[in-house]
Please model this.
Amino acid sequence: MSQPPTPRVLVTPAAEATIDLLRDEHGPLMFHQSGGCCDGSSPMCFTKGEFRVGGNDVWLGQIYGCDFFMSASQFEYWKHTQLTVDVTKGRGASFSLEIPMGVRFLIRSRLFTQEEEQNMAIVYDGEEYLTRPMEA
Model:
């Protein structure tokens, strides 16, 4: 029996609770981590489809029913790490939906083990994402 692929991105229970509140208010959500301005490499939460992704973005998977994307240049730095989306008190400097709640999402990371790297979850660029096979 084969093991399921190693997920590239996870989510904490505290972040799930925040996602629930945001989903109740805004509907389906998505995340993008750019490494650009504002909060730098903090994950930003948007209403699904509000942030347009393309060939310069990488889909890493889903967290709690939300697609998680990262800019391709950031992915080059983070591809050997498992990311965990968490939440903390404080106001970030981004356009992310949680900011008015007085909290902000953040990333915790750890390096994959060699064993985990042998069984990685598939990633897609933003354009491939639209035509990817749906998970069962």
About this structure: The chain has one domain: 9-126. The first strand starts at residue 9 and ends at 11. The chain has a mean pLDDT of 90. Residues 11 and 85 are 5 Å apart (CA to CA).
